[in-house]
Request: fold
Amino acid sequence: MSSPSRVPGRRRAPGRVKRLPDGLAGRGASWAVKSAAGLCVVGGAAVALTVPAELADAETEPTAAVAAAPAGVAAAVADRSSEARAARSERREAAPAAVAPAGAAPVRPDALGVAGVKAVAKPKPKPKPKPAPVADAAGGASTAQAPAAGSWNGAMSSKCTNIGLIPDAVRLCSAVDAALSPSVIGGRRATADEHGTGQAIDFMTSGAQGDAIAAYVQAHVSEFNVKYLIWQQRYWAPGEGWSLMEDRGSPTQNHMDHVHVTVNY
Reply:
């Protein structure tokens, strides 16, 4: 059995074609317009409910974009903006006044300077040490400091009055004995020099005592009419200073063990 012939290019809808009721068919255009308007109102309400919080909290009037929205949306945004401003105003009035925290004030620095410092007395300077004796220019040890003048009271020493000395030599011998007490004193002897005339005295001593005797004689030259003295191979005369003598061969000849003093006749 063959199928019915079909005209090329045309197809029939499967089944039967249903027709709209007469009521809907008659109002098709107006019904579509009303449905679209309803959808706009519903959509505007949804937009109003989804407006960002920033628009609601804004201090100024709605922006141009909101103003350009449908009338219902703009009214809703304006109402929410008014309510937000009122709420913020109430919060400002109810907020307590700001109070600075304790200890926030600047701290005054400690006073600088020398206040409270006690003066300390300047320590007394230490006494300067006495200079050590300086060696004589002619060589050998220097003489010690002479005993103070006036230490002799004028009394003649028994060690000086019976050894054949002239008066000035006796006086000088007695003064030295009173001041420094040398153990042995030599006077006149049978020689062809000043010892033979009674002008020379030998104070047998050594070391520091010999230095002290020489210094004493130097300090009393004019009082005892001293001509010169010899001590430790050195020769001294008033106004001339010390000078080194030639070596005579023995400690006694070089006057290492005694001080020789000669006075003027």
